[in-house]
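Why show two proteins at once? Because comparison is the fastest way to build intuition. When a single record is shown, students tend to memorize it. When two are placed side by side, the eye starts asking what differs. So, the first record is below.
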Amino acid sequence: MARSGAEGRGVLEGAFALMEVLAQGEEVGLTRLATDAELPKATAHRLLGQLVALGAVQSRAGRYRLGARTFRLGQAWHPARALRAASARPLRELASASGRLSLSLSVAEAGRTIVVGGLRGEVDDVFPLSSGVVLPPGSAAELILAASAPSGEPPEGRTAASWAREVAQARERGLAFEYGQCVSSLSCVSAPILSASGQVVAAVAATSLEAGQIAPLGESVARAAAMISANLSRRPAIRARPHREWPDRPPGTRAPHPVLAGPHQYPDC
């Protein structure tokens, strides 16, 4: 796959575009891959052949998926590795107390919200929340990450004003709730994971097929987030994005993290 100059950059961009499509977790045929990656079909076929030869992509009966080599390299990404280690016990405890929920850890990367770990549940039959999956725009995890970041563009389907209101609510509560806006049958609650310096480095979320489960789960998810944050503070620091510290709010307002603030009522959203 070696090239020089602009041609080489074009090849790499095309290969990454294909792998971004495959990162959604499905086996995909050549025509859809080329369309979604915005590449000519012949170019996509050529690049896929090279990626298959490298072990980065697998091919079966004319359909493609990410290969074991890509998975192995992705697992070594430091923020994901540290987060998975810090979250192992808190997520197990949350899962044992909360039934068949899907639990996920997400980070912001290149303008997207990417799952880097978690525990699978019945939700994965509807929307797989495996490592490497890019969450739909406007997810609860994205709200948590956006609430600690400089103002940016709203996700697709949200106006700037409505997104600003949702981000402000997430900042106020220290939690974000999402009821079927991203995937119609799924509801979710998410809380921030903090570094030792108080910066938001990730979001933990619980996703359910039953909307009625979500509001009562807020305190449990926030408690799990606090435990993960405490575990992270005892590990080598994760390099955070230049996010605003959480909280960054006027004195006298409610603390955004319910575990730190004490008992908290979660409104129906």
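Second record. Ask yourself what differs from the first in the token line.
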Amino acid sequence: MKRNIVIATVAAAALITGGTATALATTGDDESAAKQSSVQVKDDDRKDDDGQGDERDDADDAAENTAEAKAAKVTAAEAIKAALAKTPGTAVSAELDEEDGGLVWGVDILKGGTWHEVEVDPGTGKVLGTWVDKDDDGDDAADAARVNSALKGASTSAEDAARAGADKGTVTSVDLDDDGTAGAWGVETTGAKGAESEWNVDLKTGKVTADRHDDHDSQADQADDDRDDQAEDGSDD
């Protein structure tokens, strides 16, 4: 259940530099002002559609994923631990995110019936800022109930899932499904060459398995792309 308000990625390959930028809390009641991230991400100003086709875009995405994964010296598990030390509760998700030019770990924590967002520096492990995250639709109580239902009897925490997923690559996201019936944590990893993979970590056993639903979605997306290409070719004739 990702409750991050800002979820953004850099459109082209990222270059990690020593520049400065400010990561700001974007919503909710400010508890501690967000500080600058020590890890900066720069867009190389390539356009998404540079005329080089899908192969070039895929290469750009892989380069971006690799750069961000390598820049995050603090692991997902370490970020979750740091966030919980600052704001005790139940960690529900963690995601490596680009925000205002800086790379941050965004960790969602449920404390009682209140949601908190905690940003952790992926370079130092220090907490950059915390604030209450309120849903604009007023569904906070319902969200909390779904999470509590999903995690009832669970013995595998988000931190445990992040550690388990690290055997498959660099963990960039840990998330609990938001339908309240989840039997596993969803974990996203980036491989050495930038390839992204998704895994399920069982809530009770901690067993890691490939996310077959993601494979099915990828195949469906490819089929849609193929149909679009065929339609365009037909309209050109």
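One difference worth noting in the second protein: The radius of gyration is 19 Å.
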